[in-house]
Amino acid sequence: MARRALPIFKQLTCRSSPTSFAVKPDPNTRFVTYMPRPGDGAPRPVTLIPGDGIGPLVTNAVEQVMEAMHAPVYFERYDVHGDMQRVPPEVLDSIRKNKVCLKGGLRTPVGGGVNSLNVQLRKELDLYASLVNCFNLPGLPTRHENVDIVVIRENTEGEYSGLEHEVVPGVVESLKFCSERIAKYAFEYAYLNNRKKVTAVHKANIMKLADGLFLESCREVATKYPSIKYNEIIVDNCCMQLVSKPEQFDVMVTPNLYGNLVANTAAGIAGGTGVMPGGNVGADHAVFEQGASAGNVGNEKITDQKKANPVALLLSSAMMLRHLQFPSFADRLETAVKRVISEGKHRTKDLGGGSTTQEVVDAVIANLD
């Protein structure tokens, strides 16, 4: 998830002389090695939930690439589907044991009936922070350039806390609450990833108490990070600014509902939900999945034709590898995916191509260093 650091030899200009050649250093060259602790190379178990729709296709893509890289991870697979009443206890036990999970999309019923298993997972494991990284991929044309946005949204509070009830027939009351921990996480993320600005997205002009409390938390935490610029924007204006000048944003921190809308909008601007990685994290566990929720299950036609885009989940699995402290494997995977996108020969329909999921996977494997 870390932003690429500027080349450490940037200040060393090439000096011309009769006996020397000007050589421009490769900005991708690593000059300082990663020193693991003894035993860090031991394979790590990861809970795998293929999910619904295109989920089995894209999670299988990750499995193939991990095997081709000989990555030090192995998967414990569990079949979970969105129409289940609850997440099976053995799945929760596996995630609690392994600390890390990779999942495909779970179909969420609309209206009455079964509650969202995605929300259940977040609440059971206290995955209070959702992170979606929306950025331009070289070679993939978009309306805007220089987009590199990280949307951090609260995952368990706000409207998604599920605190609603019917007062009398025809009258439903929904409660909204928030704490300061999402603000703390957003600034900590920005600090650790050399990000320069955090923008709080809110509707405090109307929801003066709930969103007002959210802003108070953000302002208080901001004082502890003087090197990071902090500003605020009303969600209405935020949406307009996103589609007109998205490059102005860096890290965005939001309550739950706004963040879902902002993340999907930012993903669409930067290249589409099929290429944006993301994950959910709490104090003890992390679940990685396609960053933006729109399209994470797909439709029957894409599933039947086996033409789902695996890029988002592949990049999410690169995030997972960094989370597990396997940086070189993460770098290899991310570089291979970006090469395939840049070459433009193997792209699924959503990116203007006609490739199948397997063809994209084969191309990624062929580009692994």
Automatic annotation (TrEMBL):
Gene Ontology molecular function: isocitrate dehydrogenase (NAD+) activity; metal ion binding
Pfam families xrefs: Iso_dh
Organism: Ziziphus jujuba
Domain Isopropylmalate dehydrogenase-like: residue ranges: 45-364
Functional description taken from the UniProt entry: Performs an essential role in the oxidative function of the citric acid cycle.
Official protein name in the record: Isocitrate dehydrogenase [NAD] regulatory subunit 1, mitochondrial isoform X2
Family designation: Belongs to the isocitrate and isopropylmalate dehydrogenases family.
Subcellular localization: Mitochondrion
Keywords: Magnesium, Manganese, Metal-binding, Mitochondrion, NAD, Oxidoreductase, Transit peptide, Tricarboxylic acid cycle
Organism domain of life: Eukaryota
GO cellular component terms, semicolon-separated: mitochondrion
GO biological process: isocitrate metabolic process; tricarboxylic acid cycle
